[in-house]
Each structure stands twice: as C-alpha cells, then as structure tokens.
Write a structure and sequence with these properties.
heterodimer, A: alpha/beta, four-stranded parallel beta sheet, 10 strands, B: alpha/beta, five-stranded parallel beta sheet, three-stranded antiparallel beta sheet, globular
Chain lengths: 677, 579
C-alpha cells in the first residue's frame, strides 16, 4: 500500500490479527542493532530497575518538597470555607462576602498544579475544576447567566447532601455545602478582560455560589496587580503561597540522585555540565533534567557492554562470576584497567591478562574499591562544600554541583580557585570555622565508613581544641607595637611606619595559637581533598559506572536544526565526504548538490531575488560542472533539464523557509533570512 | 526594549532552536538592561539610554563567534570586572551569572568541536550569524561565474576559451561594474567606515574578483585603523552592520533587474514534464548518500527502543526524510498498527488524523461534537486498554496545515500517551519555534539529525510552487471537475465569462466584466431570465472560488476568473472537443 495519494493524507496500516498478538518485547530492541550485545537482556533489566528507583526517588522528593505547600493551601481552603459558613449565617456583612478568597501560588513548575488538583480532589471534594482553555466555557456560562450556574450548584449540593452524608460527615462534618474551587493554572496566559469580568460577576453571586480561586503564577506576585485593576483586585482576598525555587529543587534532586552511593550510575563532568546548562540557560525545567538523566542512563546501558556491572555491589559481585570470555576481554580493553595493569608487577600482569579467574577476583576487589572511593568522595565533597560555600565571592561556586563539576573534571587542588579558596579559609574567624567544623562533623558522623571514622574523630579533636582556646585566654601582647601608630603623622610617615610594621610582623612572625590551629585545620582539609577527591578517571573500572558521551546528549536533547541545515547547504563535504566537494572556506564547488548551489547564489541577494537572474546564474554554474561529463544530450534538452533542476532547488528552498513568493515585483521571490542563514 | 534590541533577539533566535531559548535570550537582555541601568546611575550620566545596545551586541557576538572567543576574551573580562566592582548594588548574583555565561560559552564551543556527528560542528555559529555586507545586483552572476571556475583550476583555463560561458549577459561587464560600485561605496562613507566595510568583506569571505581596489583601499585606511583602538573598531563595525540591516529593510525600493520569466521560453513547466525531465538527471554522489542512509538505518532499532521507553523522535536536517521513514516503517513496523500521516498533503488536518485513528484504528463509527471531544475519547480509550499500541509517523510535522498552535497541542497530547509512539520529521528553518515549553514537555522529543540530501519530490509536488504554478494542470482538472457538476446553463454562463476574459487578454486596463453587461449578455444568449437567477448562479461560482468580484472605482461590481489564461484556453478547447 502506497503512502502517497492526491486525495488523502493519512494511511492506517493494520497487520493481520494473528501477527498482532505477538508484539516484540522492548528488550529485543536493546541488542538487535548492536553486534556485540553482551548480556543485553540483563543490562536492560538493570536499566529498568535503576530507572524505576530513580524515578520513584524523584517523585518522592517532589512530593516531599510540595508537601508543605499543599498542606498550607489546604489549610487555607478550610479556613476560607469556614469563613463562608460564618458569613452565611450572618447575612449582614455583605461587603466581606464580596471578597473572594484567593490563593496565589507562585510556582516554578507547572506540573505542581496538576498534582495539586489531584490532591485537592481527594482531600476537599472539589466540584469543579476548570483548567486552562476550558475557562472560556465557564465564562460563556456566566455570561448567559450566573444564576444558572448557581442553581446548578445548589442542585448538586442538594443532591449530594442527602446521598452521602455519612461518608462526608465522618471525615469533616462541616463540609455541608462545599465551596467551588477554581484553579487557574497559568494566570499570566489569561486575557485580562475575561478574568476581570469573571471576578466581578462571580463576586456578585458569591452568597449563592461560594467560590475559591487559586491562581498559579510563574513570575512574581506583582503580576496580579498588573493584570487586575484595583477595583477588581479589591474584590479578592489574597493570600500568597510560595513554592520552592526551581534551582533549589535542582540542588535537592542532584543531591539525592547523583551525590549518593545509593545509585551506582554516575555522570561525568561534561554530561553533568550539559544537563545543568540546559536547565539554567534554556528551560528551568526539572522534568527535562530528569529526562536528560534518563536518556544518559539509557545510553550508558545501551552502549557500554560492561554496564552490566553497574548495579549495587553484592549483585555486581555475583554477576562478575558469570561474565563471559568476551566480557573479560572487554574489561582488559578498558583504558583505565590497562593503566592499572601496567602498574602491577609483571607476574601479576600476566595473570591478569591470561587467567580469567584471577581477573574476576581482581575485578571484585576493584569494584569494591570503586564503591569505597565513591562513599568517601561524597563525604569529603560535602565537607569541602561546607567550607567553600560561605567564602566571599564563592571561588569554588555557591552550589555543590559547581564544586562537584570541578572535582570531576580535574585535580581540584591544581586549580587557581582552590588555592585562593584555601587562602580565604586561612582568614576565617573562629566562630565561623567552628560552625563549619561542626557541620562537617555531623556529615562524617552520619556514615559508618571505617577509614573516615578517624576523620570524624580528628574534627572532634579540633573542635575541642578551639573550645580550649576560649578558656585559656592568650597572653600575647598586641598593644606594644600598635601604640606607636596613634600619634599624628603626615601621609608619608604613616606609610613608612606601616611598612615598618609589616616588615616587623613578617620577621618575627609569631602566630597566635588560634592561627596555628586554623592552619592545622586548613591543612587537614587540604590533605583530605588531595586524598579522596581524585577525579574518577584515576579509578580503574570507572567506565563501568560513569557515562561520558556528552555529545550524544546534546545532540538529542538540545539540537540545533538551523545550524545543521546551514552546514548541509554551505559545506556539503561535511556530510558527503567526497573529495570533489572539498573546498576552501566560503566557497562551494560547482559539482555540489543543486540546492547547495542555489542557496549559495541566493545568499548574494538582498531582500528580493529575480528568478531569471537566479536561474541564469544557476545554469552557468551547473553547465560548467557538467562540461566535464560527456555531453550526450543536445544542448536544448540539457537546458531544459537544468531549468527543471533549478525549479526543484527553488521549490525546496521555499519548503525549507528560505524564500517565499512575493507580489512586489513580477518573477521575484523574497528572502526570509538575513545574513548567512 | 529598543527596536534594535528586538533585532538582536532575532539574531539570537538564529543561534538556537526553541522558544525556551528565546526566553532565556530575553532574560539575558533584560539582565543586561538592568546592569546598564545601574551603570548609568553610578556614573551619574544625564543621557538616558535604556539598553546598552553595544553591550548586547558585543555579548551576542562573543557567544556566536565560538572560534573568535579567545581573541575577544580580554574584552569580555573587562566587562565582567566592571560589573564586579559594584557590590553595593547587590549585584553579586548577577556577577555569578555573567561568569557562568562565559563558562557556558566555553562549554558550548568545546562541545561543538567535539561532536563530530552533529552538523553543528563544521563552521558552527560563526558563519551562520555573521552579517553580510551590502549586496550588489550583479553579485550573483559574478559569483556564479566564479563558482563555475573555482574548483578545478585546469578546467578554468579551458573555460575561458569557451564562448558559451562568457556569453552570460552580465558576466563580461561584471568586474568593472562591481569594482566601480565598490569604490563608490567606500568613498561615499567616512574613512572609518571604509576600513569597516573592508573588514566585512574579509569576514564574509566574499570572493573578491578584483583584488586591486580593495588593496588600494587598505592602503588608504590602514593609518585610520591604527589610530582607532581595536575595540572601538569592532564596535563601529557591528553598529555599522546593524545600520545596514535596517537600511536594507526600511526602504521599499529594491534594486534588482527587471527581467521576467515571460521572455524565457522555458518558464512554463507543469508537474509532469518537470518530473520527466528530472528523471533524466542522474543523481550525483549516490555512493555517499547511500552510506549516509545506511548509517541512519542502523539507528532503527535504537529508535524503536527509545519510542517504547516513552520518548518521541523528531528527525531534522536537509533532505527529504520520507524515504528513510518509509524504510523504517517497512523494516520494523510491519507487525504493529501504525498510521502514516503526510503533513505536506494540502488537505491534511488534525481532524482527519483523529478521524483515521477513531474510525480505522479503533473501529468507532460515531461522530464527535468537537475535535477536543474526539481527543478525549481517544485518550480514554488508550488509557483504558494498555495492550493497545499505535505508532504515528508524521512526515513534515511543520507543514502549513499542521503548524498551528491548536494542531500541535492536540498532536502533542496524543504523543504524550504512553502507548502512542510518535516519530516525525521537520524541515522548515524555524520549525522548532512551534513548540513552547508546555508542548515540548508533551512531546518529550529526542532529536536526531538525518541529513539525507534527497530531493523533496513528494513534499513539493502538491505545493503551488513558484515556477510550476503557471502550468495549472491541477486548476484545470478541478475546473473541469466542478463545471461538470453544474447545469448546462451554468456552464454556458461561465463559458461566456471565460470568452470575454480571453477577448480582453491584451487590454491592460481590463478589470473584469461588469455585472450589468454580463447580465445583458446572458439574457441575449437565453441563459438566464432574471437578474436574480444570475446572482444565484454567481454565488455558486464564488463558493467554488471560480470567480472573484471586485468593486470598480464607479461602484460597479466587476467579475473576474482568478485562473490564468492558459488554463482557461485549455479548458475551452477541451469543452469544445467534448461537445
């Protein structure tokens, strides 16, 4: 059955009923394309497992983060509802009645609200929810008559009241006539007029149609006052609820998903950088970030046969025993493993390269080391972050993710920023230092790791020493040298004396005990960093858990179709790899595809292009190219063909959106782009 | 925001793909605006300028000129330092951002170099967004002759002796006129601009045919260049380019030659002859193209995997992706229900897509009140029955008919269903602008670049394309089709109008047949008996878009057939043959 027709555009294909029953399981696609599909089934299962865990973890996180918000919102709804109850008893206070209780939610992510809706459905018996778009329907109803709406409401409440009093009463007895909660998901996108009218009309009918509005706002609360004039906004009784900013959200997600040993899968520096950049510079969307994470997970398991070992430690150890010969060969081929082997003694080298069982044992211990490395890594990283996050100007970044990126990239102690950070640390005041140390102590204490248990002890000792400093006040005199500076001098002398003082300090540099201790602490931290924050590339078998192919991520998540189009048109050699197409920058060979030539010629025109000139120029180029081939056809026919080719190229350019027909001048087309593309 | 800024946003848009990046660009501009404001406050300058255009442009240029970045780094650093100096305005956070921006650029640049598979690498942003200098009308012909010669030098020698090449109308006089205008241009501007214009030339890598004059210019402008610091030069240059843009777009007058296609015999080609002619052309680089498509075919399984895992796939890149998708369909989709949707089909609509799903896939015979109802029904159906699976293949998701906001929303909602898998292709330059955040998260795209270079044969065959339009084989068939369904009298009425229009072919001031005259003629031919019957008949024509009425200056209605005369003549001939 063909898929092109002049009479229809949709073609449905249904396989035979028998065949349809057998649908191909997903995991089959995991290996088919690849030749060396080792353990692909297992890999796919591991992928599914880890992804499910990660997903549920993020969902849990989001729920947790939103819990506060939801709770307070529900509390608000309850309160405003009881307000209705009161005022319905007290008909006197009409003015207050006109105020529609309004909750303004400031949200960074829209999907919060969807969840909110579902939560409200459960908790507060929402009769009607109007989402984006369907507000128009509601609006029409009110225009026809608000009365009909309110009569509908009384009908519904009357119906439900006798029906399910038992159920309702048990949970909350006061919900006799529940208010209508109207959620406007995206307040900014409403037409202001509609919104204003709606508020004014419904405020008139509030006594018979209890209404609570919830606005979702993505920008700032000022927008309410900008959208609604005072006359309207005074009808609302607004309360503000603010959700967590998306940046904080990202930090928590990263913290829980990547900076733990809970999930074996890790991202390399470049990948992490790309994902956070997409987040910060393109969309601020956690959802997209998670999507990127999912894709990298998938890519990792899909492309790396050894990713079968990327699971929790006991399971990985078990799997090592079942590794096939091919997989062992794969391990031997890993660059990090080869580096490791080269460092070993020659007998061991031979054993590692020939003896499978010996290799497997070695892999077990290496994986264990990797695991330990990670658990230490994150502890020390957090500790270092405690120190650097409070420094002025944040030489190592304010967020832990920035610190993490630099640590992943290279030896952090080689960077200038680290050096300057240490210098700043050497100037910390005592109380600051102590609070940081206390935090670090907590971090280290939370873990049961053996090696770092001593670290916690060391920190405790430092803390105790600082305490002691307080008690035994230092007796050093600082008054003697300073007294000289108090007399009146001119600028020259002042400078001179200051210089002298500096000189004096340097020569008989006698540090206070606090300074000595501070120095010790900083050196201690430095040694921790140097020992534990080695970049992952130094670890053997790091390829098993680290996903490094950042470019594929960028390609698939943040593609640049315009640039691809431009490259294809401007430099066909890039794709076609034919020597005839090789050319210098900015030129295009005349044998290039027709559309490239037409495109190149059209770049020479300003806003309008004369089709005749264009076609002649095109013909010139193409004839020159064809001269080299045997000219079999007659010249007239060849001209016809060239013209046809030109027509095709032009209509393709039109399809691509570079030109459009214009009526400004006969036989002209208008360019739709300016400059090179 | 000043209008220039809007322009920068335009330029910025070119850098990246989607709506969200436009937003981030705006955010960035806004931030810059804020900073420049603060700067102004501090310097107590009286001159109020809202956005530092130059700042914006500098920054944008820095971003795009990935390769140039290093050269201009110093300047960038100066900028950031300037900002850092003002802690009293609590700008610290912004500082961070600026520093990060720089970081971002680095990452981007680095990545572009790395990703070898992606087309963005080759000459990336730099060339795409550089500005072109002023175009001269003869440039195209000039470039053409250049291109004809460039690649093989030994050939170019022989070409020079070839009379056919040199016969190209402007070719022989091109060098002179070009250099003339060039020198004119440079003298009419200030000295500073002169140097600038020249730099543009170097930038855009124009092929300078006559090397002499530019080099003379250089000799003149060299001392000037030395005087102005390089930074200022750059600024001047960019602002000059911007001026040029607005100059080119402000005047409605465009200098192009007045030649028309009518003088060329070859101008008229209909779809069929076009196809026949093109079939004679042997495609070049078929080996390479085959290799490319094989490379893409290897991805089929991966696509299936990713589709099944909840992603949707969009293909972009030059060349028709129809064959590729067709192969995808025949190789892996044979055993599953799938719908192929030709977005380029002019009659396509979301309604027809939904209809084919409800009627043919789900075997539902009822009707729906609205498209949204139908969508809801489909969504429910698919949610209820998780064993139901459907693949949607959409060729040209960005086509004229589907690019509307509502259509995209609906397709997006379909694609967000767990058991509907969407694989689509886009071709238009600005296609990604269709999708805002909400839609993008519905679609959950994975992008795949599939540059195929294959001709858009199917895609362009429906379209009334520029040069094919005159052929009118489609209008002719539809004309015949419609008129066959009419009464003989109505046909007679229409024939009268055609004849009248053809008789007035050479009358340039002909605006149509006035209603009264037409009525008179119809009466005389015993086609109508009252003015009302004629009007009723005309309404029917108008409904079929067979005629157009226009009010003349005297307030009288004039009737016109909006079909070109060749088609009308063909139609008459055919009618006569039949009768």
């Amino acid at each position: 059955m063909a898929t092109s027709s002049v009479s229809k555009g949709c073609f449905v294909f249904k396989p035979n009923f028998k065949k349809r029953k057998i649908s191909v399981p997903v995991e089959d696609y995991f290996n088919k394309g690849k030749n060396e599909s080792e353990d692909s089934k297992l890999r796919f299962e591991t992928y599914q497992l880890i992804w499910q865990q990660m997903k549920s973890e993020t969902e849990r996180l989001q729920e947790e983060l939103n819990k506060n918000l939801f709770d307070s919102l529900i509390e608000f709804l309850r309160k405003s509802y009881s307000g209705f109850q009161k005022s319905s008893r007290d008909w006197g206070c009409q003015i207050k009645l006109r105020e529609i209780p309004t909750a303004a939610l400031i949200l960074d992510m829209k999907h919060f609200l969807q969840k909110l809706v579902s939560q409200l459905m459960m908790d507060c018996c929402v009769d009607e929810e109007t989402k984006e778009g369907s507000i128009q329907v509601a609006q029409k109803k009110t225009h026809c008559s608000m009365d009909s709406l309110s009569s509908w409401y009384t009908n519904v409440t009357r119906k439900t009241d006798p029906k399910m009093p038992r159920k309702k009463r048990t949970s909350s007895s006061q919900w006799q006539s529940p208010p209508v909660v109207l959620i406007l998901k995206d307040m900014e996108s409403f037409t202001t007029k509609v919104l204003q009218d709606f508020i004014i009309i419904s405020s008139q009918h509030l006594h018979e149609f209890p209404l609570i509005l919830i606005f979702g706002i993505a920008t700032s609360p000022i927008i309410i006052h900008r959208l609604l004039p005072h006359a309207v906004s005074s009808l609302l009784c607004i309360e503000l609820f603010q959700s967590l900013s998306c940046k904080e959200h990202l930090t928590t997600v990263l913290d829980k998903l990547l900076l733990t040993t809970q999930f074996p899968f890790k991202l390399s520096e470049k990948v992490l950088q790309i994902l956070t950049n997409i987040f910060l510079y393109h969309d601020f969307s956690i959802q997209n970030f998670i999507k990127g994470l999912q894709l990298s997970l998938l890519e990792h398991f899909y492309s790396q046969p050894l990713s079968v070992l990327c699971c929790n430690l006991p399971e990985a150890k078990r799997r090592i025993n079942f590794l096939s010969d091919n997989q062992c060969e794969n391990i031997r081929r890993l660059p990090s493993f080869r580096r490791y082997v080269e460092k070993q003694a020659s007998e061991k080298q031979v054993a590692l390269l020939t003896n499978e069982r010996f290799l497997k044992e070695e892999i077990q211990s290496l994986l264990e080391n990797l695991h330990v490395y990670h658990s230490n890594y994150f502890l020390v990283l957090r500790c270092l972050h405690q120190f650097t996050s409070s420094l002025p100007k944040y030489p190592l970044g304010r967020q832990i993710r920035e610190l993490y990126c630099t640590c992943l990239e290279k030896n952090i102690w080689d960077s200038e920023e680290y050096v300057s950070a240490l210098q700043l640390l050497r100037m910390l005041a005592k109380d600051e230092l102590m609070t940081i140390l206390q935090k670090c102590f907590k971090i280290f204490k939370s873990t049961s790791e053996k090696q770092l248990g001593s670290t916690a002890k060391r920190i405790e000792e430092f803390l105790a020493q600082f305490q002691n400093l307080d008690e035994a006040k230092e007796e050093e005199d600082t008054s003697g040298s300073l007294s000289k500076g108090l007399q009146k001098t001119d600028l020259y002398h002042l400078q001179k004396s200051l210089l002298e003082m500096k000189e004096l300090r340097r020569t008989n540099k006698k540090q206070t005990r606090f300074e000595v201790l501070r120095e010790k602490v900083v050196n201690f931290i430095d040694s921790l960093v140097r020992e534990y924050l080695l970049p992952p590339e130094t670890q053997p078998l790091h390829e098993v858990v680290y996903f490094t192919a950042g470019h594929t991520l960028r390609e698939h998540l943040n593609a640049a179709p315009r640039i691809a189009l431009h490259t294809a048109l401007n430099n066909p050699y890039y794709y076609l790899k034919n020597e005839a197409l090789k050319s210098e920058e900015g030129c295009i060979p005349n044998v290039a595809p027709d559309i490239c030539i037409a495109y190149k010629l059209h770049l020479e025109c300003s806003r309008l292009i004369n089709l005749v000139d264009w076609s002649e120029a095109f013909a010139t180029v193409v004839t020159a190219a064809e001269k080299m081939d045997a000219d079999s056809a007659t010249s007239e026919e060849r001209n016809e063909i060239i013209h046809a080719r030109f027509i095709r190229a032009v209509s393709e350019l039109e399809l691509l959106g570079f030109i459009k027909p214009t009526k400004q001048k006969t036989d002209h087309v208008a360019r739709l782009t300016w400059g090179g593309c | 925001m000043s209008y220039k800024c809007m322009y920068y946003v335009n330029v910025y848009l070119a850098v990246d793909i989607n709506f969200s990046s436009l937003l981030s660009a705006l955010l960035f501009l806004f931030r810059l605006a804020m900073m420049s404001k603060l700067e102004l406050k501090e310097d107590r300058m009286l001159e109020v300028q809202f956005v530092g255009d130059d700042d914006v442009l500098n920054h944008i240029l820095d971003r795009e000129a990935g390769a140039k970045l290093k050269k201009e780094r110093t300047q960038l650093l100066v900028n950031t330092k300037k900002i850092i100096k003002k802690p009293e305005y609590d700008l610290e956070e912004d500082d961070q951002e600026v520093l990060k921006d720089q970081n971002y650029v680095e990452v981007l640049g680095r990545d572009i170099q790395e990703s070898l598979k992606n087309g963005s690498a080759a000459d990336g942003g730099n060339k795409v967004y550089s500005f072109q200098n002023r175009k001269h009308s003869e440039k195209m012909a000039k470039l053409a002759s250049e291109l004809a010669k460039t690649p093989r030098k030994n050939v170019s020698l022989s070409l020079k002796n070839d009379p056919e090449i040199i016969n190209i109308p402007q070719c022989s006089k091109v060098p002179r006129s070009h250099s003339d205008s060039e020198s004119e241009y440079s003298t009419s501007n200030s000295e500073d601009d002169d140097g600038v214009a020249q730099e543009n030339e170097e930038d855009t890598n124009e092929v300078i045919l006559n090397q002499k004059i530019p080099s003379q210019n250089r000799a003149v402008s060299a001392p000037v260049c030395k005087e102005t610091p390089s930074k200022k030069m750059k600024r001047d240059k960019t602002s000059d380019l911007v001026e040029e843009y607005f100059e080119a777009h402000s005047s409605s007058k465009v200098l192009t030659s007045d030649r028309t296609l009518q003088k060329l015999k070859r101008a008229k080609l209909d779809q069929q002859t076009l196809r026949n002619l093109l079939s004679k052309v042997s495609p070049s680089f078929s080996a390479e193209l085959k290799q490319l498509s094989q490379q893409y075919e290897q991805l089929f399984h991966k696509w299936m995997l990713q589709l099944r895992l909840g992603f949707n796939i969009v293909l972009y890149g030059l060349g028709s992706k129809r064959d590729l998708l067709e192969r995808f369909r025949t190789t892996v989709l044979q055993d599953s229900i799938h719908v192929v949707i030709n977005g380029f089909f002019p009659g396509i609509s979301v309604k027809s897509i939904l209809n084919s799903i409800t009627e043919e896939v789900l075997n539902h015979m009822g009707t729906f009140r609205s498209v949204l109802d139908q969508l809801d029904w489909i969504v429910n159906k698919f949610k209820e029955d998780s064993s139901l699976e459907l693949f949607l293949l959409i060729h040209n998701l960005d086509s004229q008919m589907l690019r509307g906001d509502k259509s995209q929303q609906i397709i997006g909602q379909l694609s967000s269903l767990r058991n509907i898998y969407l694989i689509a292709s886009i071709d238009h330059l600005n296609a990604p602008l269709m999708w805002d955040h909400a839609k993008q998260s519905l679609y959950n795209w994975l992008w795949y670049e599939t540059t195929t270079y294959s001709p858009y044969t199917e895609e362009t065959s429906y379209e009334n394309s520029l040069l094919v339009k005159q052929s009118g084989s489609l209008p002719l068939s539809s004309l015949i089709h419609v008129l066959r369904s009419l009464t003989p009298n109505a046909r007679g009425i229409f024939r009268l109008l055609i004849k009248y229009q053809l008789d007035n072919l050479d009358n340039p001031s002909y605006i149509g047949l006035s209603f009264q005259d037409f009525y008179q003629q119809c009466r005389e031919a015993f086609l109508v008996n009252s003015d009302l019957t004629l009007r009723a008949q005309l309404t029917e024509f108008r409904d079929h878009k067979l005629i157009r009425t226009k009010k003349g200056t005297d307030g009288v209605e004039y009737l016109l057939i909006p079909v070109d005369n060749g088609t009308l003549r063909d139609f008459l001939e055919r009618e006569e043959e039949e009768s």
